[in-house]
Specification:
heterodimer, A: 781 residues, alpha/beta, N-terminal domain of TfIIb, 5-stranded parallel beta sheet, 26 helices, 29 strands, globular, B: 160 residues, alpha+beta, 4-stranded mixed beta sheet, elongated
């Protein structure tokens, strides 16, 4: 099928609009309200075209392209109409930068840094660098305005965290409103009032902080004007350089463009050219990266404790000192506690340093939930396979969300869930406390705290009643499993969970409708004394349903998946090859320190509670900011952050991402892989001669099957059933909500606006309550 | 804040009535406005949740039409016509007289919660302007004194 635009024949796809077809063939039609991630809206009318055999001037954005259509876009009559439409829009939009006689000359300096709150003149607009109105007016050749401007005189809205709003610049294209509602599923803003008084505003005049806003910043990125601007990154003007990298604050690893100016990362903008993750960036990645990375307290120089005081030294001296000191200990007396924010390359080298050079097999991840889950999956032989992905979520027929706070731990995930729901998925929430996603659910059951196991057991029993599982009966574990189910009475489960029988059958019935389902579970299951029992019972459910995919643990730390893949997990070498020599895992190392079996530690982030490592004789700490552990460390090594090194990260679903260097580290801080190589060489180890992190990655790809292209084995069948728990309530140990962090430092400690947002939502104690804050900072592993 | 049990009963009832309609939101907003004299935040939230619609959609509609109020209005809503015909017959003087009598500006509500004053675009009484409309009752051929005396009569009757 074809259409003709201005004499050029272009192909069209079924269901495309004229605008979409034109864009696919790189034909420019001016628009201000159309956005490629949003359905057509038809508000700005700038895309009007002439179509043979059609009356009037239909808008290209909402007119379906039909075979043989002849469209006129770039012709006099159409251009004149568009010019007048744009002039009408410009009446209410400050446009001195567009009709200025100096316009051509100012192009070169337009992107300079600026400080001005209210936008009245051309050089104060936060969009002065990339402005869609300028682009469109340039294309249409607007150089004068016959009608005087009418400034709306609305007050600036600067009272909310993260972004300022100046609706005097707004042209009411509705991109922000639609983005917030249709893509993010939040609906924090709406068109309010009518006609001349129409304004984008919040519901019932609440502030964004009080309202539903999750501060993802999608509205800012969609806005064609400078009406919305991020507080933290609007003053620096045009960036000197930019790189495509990722956000590392959670395990979703959204693709981000990092903008560098004056040698620092000044802004992080979601990479909208990447199909995956373009729409998922959230408050942490969109707003917190520059402030978090550029804090003046970053560590600059290696420090060695001499006579009780930490003094700066050269790297050579630090490496020599570490090498000489470590030689005093037997290999099994040395332990490695690895930060889940290191790159895959660094993790691979740490595994090499620990297991091959030093001969210590005491290596594990600093994490609670992620470590538990990955260790469990690795023991079952399932960690090495590809996991359920974000696409599986978007295309799921049903999604069950168990005990999680993803709105705060993985704010991008609700976007995928919204998309799934738009595609017809049934969303079921099973939670023992309030879940922020209730508005996005079709079914929600509030279970009694401690009754999750009973809930899963009862669900399993119902599924077993309705599904034939002949092939499962062969399993060794089946008899015990069957017997444990026989002892379970639904009425007891109803009593202890508080879930009604009809709710159970509704959930069970929904799950049976399709194998394209996903069960997501969050870290609140760690309140159970044996959380692996819950994983086992979830596995029961999936096994009975005959699903070989469909489990998503909401792993928290940025590269927890990647460092486990790369060998920093107890009992497994890179690629989940069984380590033939056994070593201590995290908890055994902690008890080992107390007993004196473990005496020296290499720790790569300071989030461990000090009492866990008290008693160790020699502690090397590599970190980015000072932490509570500093007073106990013998050597402190300043590490580079993710924007200062290259390498690879692996997201929760097993996608491998490139980290790219955007700026230099402060002082003499080094990327972690260089630090580990330095120590390795000083200990006389081979295989630490790398020119770049790329060399390490090549070595990994060549030597480890797991990292070879298409090297991942397929998902093994879940041939196992776990006896279910007896009905009743488990005593839970209360834990503080997880707060998003990087290399051990909670993001909100360095980003004031994030603190405000999290306080408002009761994710962290209010600042005034000092003792409670201290309590929250103590990470009890 | 959540709606009381009685309020919930009422909201459930109108939700039920509206369930068969093609555009239930307008119907529901009318019923809410009539019953409670404004679209209350907790009511709108309850309705949005029950209908599975975003609250922003309800709120947009509620603010789009002047008929609906998102802040509480007085017992009597006085709308003085400011259409072009009434204007040419000095409706501004009528409006100013009412303003002065009630000591409020248009869009505001008296402290005792009795009156809300509004300007209205044409209310269709062009043959009898200046006109105003109080809770659905039309008053025509007004002059400032007459308008004030009508207000006085309402106040005199104790607002009953």
């Amino acid at each position: 099928m074809k259409i003709t635009i201005d004499g050029v024949e272009i192909p069209i796809k079924e269901g495309q609009t004229i605008l979409e077809a034109a864009r696919d063939s790189d034909i420019y039609i001016p628009t201000l309200c159309a956005h490629k991630e949003l359905p057509a809206f038809g508000a700005c009318r700038l895309c009007v075209v002439k179509v043979d055999k059609m009356r009037g001037f239909p808008p290209a954005c909402s007119t379906p392209a039909t075979d043989g259509m002849i469209v006129h876009s770039d012709e006099k009559e159409v251009r004149k109409l568009r010019r007048n439409i744009l002039r009408l829009i410009l009446i209410e939009h400050p446009h001195s930068c567009i009709v200025c006689s100096e316009r051509a000359d100012c192009e070169s300096i337009r992107g300079g840094p600026v400080k001005a709150g209210r936008i009245t003149g051309c050089s104060m607009c936060p969009n002065r660098e990339t402005c869609e109105i300028r682009e469109v007016s340039h294309y249409l050749g607007i150089s004068d305005m016959e009608i005087p401007m009418e400034y709306k005189g609305l007050p600036l809205e600067r009272y909310d965290p993260f972004f300022d709003r100046d609706y005097n610049l707004c042209i009411l294209c509705g991109r922000c409103v639609r983005m917030c509602q249709q893509i993010r599923g939040v609906g924090a803003i709406a068109f309010t009032k009518r006609s001349h008084n129409t304004k984008v505003g919040t519901i019932f005049g609440r502030t964004h902080l009080e309202g539903a806003c999750r501060f993802c910043g999608a509205c800012i990125d969609a806005c064609p004007t400078g009406a919305l601007s991020p507080k933290g990154s609007k003053w620096h003007g045009k960036a000197d350089s930019s790189v495509e990298s990722i956000c590392t604050f959670c395990s979703m690893n959204c693709a981000m463009v990092l903008e560098e100016k004056w040698g620092r990362v000044m802004a992080a903008i979601p990479d909208r050219n990447k199909e995956y993750s373009r729409a998922y960036a959230c408050v942490y990645g969109r707003f917190c990266i520059p402030a978090f990375l550029n804090d003046p307290n970053r560590l600059h120089y290696p420090l060695i404790r001499k006579g009780g005081r930490l003094s700066p030294v050269s790297w050579e001296e630090a490496f020599r000192y570490i090498g000489d000191s470590l030689k005093r200990f037997a290999p099994e007396e040395i332990g490695f506690l690895v930060s889940p924010y290191l790159t895959n390359e660094s993790a691979y080298l740490l595994n090499k340093l620990s297991r091959d050079v030093i001969g210590s097999h005491n290596i594990d991840m600093i994490s609670k939930f992620g470590r538990m889950v990955i260790q469990y999956l690795a023991e079952k032989g399932r960690a090495s396979s590809s996991w359920t992905t974000l696409e599986d979520v978007e295309k799921a027929d049903w999604i069950m969300l168990i005990n999680n706070d993803m709105v705060f731990t993985h704010p991008g995930m609700p976007v995928a869930i919204h998309k799934a729901r738009e595609n017809g998925a049934r969303i079921m929430i099973v939670d023992d406390s309030k879940n922020e996603l209730e508005v996005e659910s079709d079914m929600q059951v509030r279970i009694e705290p401690g009754s999750l196991r009973t809930f899963l057991a009862a669900l399993t029993k119902l599924l077993m009643n309705n599904i034939k599982v002949t092939e499962l009966e062969e399993l060794d574990s089946f008899i015990d499993f069957r017997r444990s189910l026989d002892g379970l009475k639904l009425i007891d489960a109803v009593r202890s969970t508080g879930v009604l029988e009809k709710q159970f059958s509704a959930i069970e019935g929904t799950m049976r409708t399709s194998k394209k389902g996903v069960i997501m579970v969050g870290s609140r299951i760690m309140e159970d004394p044996v959380p692996t029992q819950i994983l086992g019972e979830i596995n029961n459910v999936l096994t009975i349903l005959g699903m070989d995919r469909g489990f998503i643990p909401l792993l928290e730390e940025g590269n927890i998946r990647g460092i486990a893949d790369s060998g920093c997990i107890n009992g497994f070498r890179p690629g989940y090859v069984r380590d033939r020599t056994s070593g201590k895992d995290y908890l055994r190392m902690i008890t080992g320190i107390r007993r004196g079996d473990v005496q020296a530690l290499f720790i790569s982030e300071g989030s461990i509670p000090p009492e866990h490592i008290r008693g160790a004789k020699f502690i090397v700490l590599s970190e980015i900011y000072p932490t509570d552990l500093d007073s106990m460390a013998d050597v402190i090594l300043p590490s580079a952050v993710f924007s200062e090194e290259s390498g690879h990260y692996t997201s929760f679903d097993g996608r491998v991402w490139n980290l790219r260097k955007a700026a230099e580290p402060p002082g003499s801080a080094l990327p972690e892989w260089k630090i580990i190589s330095g120590i390795g060489k000083n200990l006389g180890g081979d295989g630490f001669e790398y020119g770049s992190s790329e060399d390490i990655w090549k070595e990994m790809e060549e030597n480890i099957d797991f990292f070879k292209k298409d090297g991942r084995p397929p998902v093994p069948e879940r041939k196992e059933l776990l006896s279910v728990s007896e009905p009743g309530s488990i005593h839970l140990s209360e834990q503080m909500p997880y707060v998003v962090r990087y290399r051990g430092t909670p993001i909100h400690e360095l980003v004031e606006d994030l603190r405000t947002y999290l306080e408002e939502n009761d994710r962290i104690p209010r600042e005034e309550d000092e003792s409670a804050v201290e309590e929250a900072q103590r990470e009890v592993v | 804040m959540a709606p009381s049990t009685e309020e919930k009963q009422f909201l459930d009832k109108i939700l039920e009535e509206a369930s068969q309609l093609d555009s239930p939101v307008m119907f529901i907003l009318h019923k809410m406005q009539n019953e409670y004299r404004s679209i209350k935040e907790d009511h709108a939230e309850y309705i949005a949740r029950s209908m599975g619609k975003p609250l922003s959609e309800i709120y947009s509609a509620a603010t789009f039409y002047d008929e609906f109020k998102t802040s509480p209005t007085g017992k009597y809503v006085v709308k003085v016509c400011r259409g072009i015909v009434c204007h040419s017959r000095n409706s501004i003087q009528v409006l100013n007289a009412v303003r002065a009598r009630l000591d409020i500006d248009d869009g505001e509500t008296t402290k005792d919660g009795l009156f809300t004053l509004e300007e209205a675009s044409c209310i269709g009484q062009c043959d009898g302007g200046p006109a105003m409309i109080i809770n659905g009752t039309v008053f025509r051929d007004l002059d400032p004194d007459l308008a004030v005396s009508i207000i006085d009569r309402i106040i005199g009757s104790g607002g009953a």
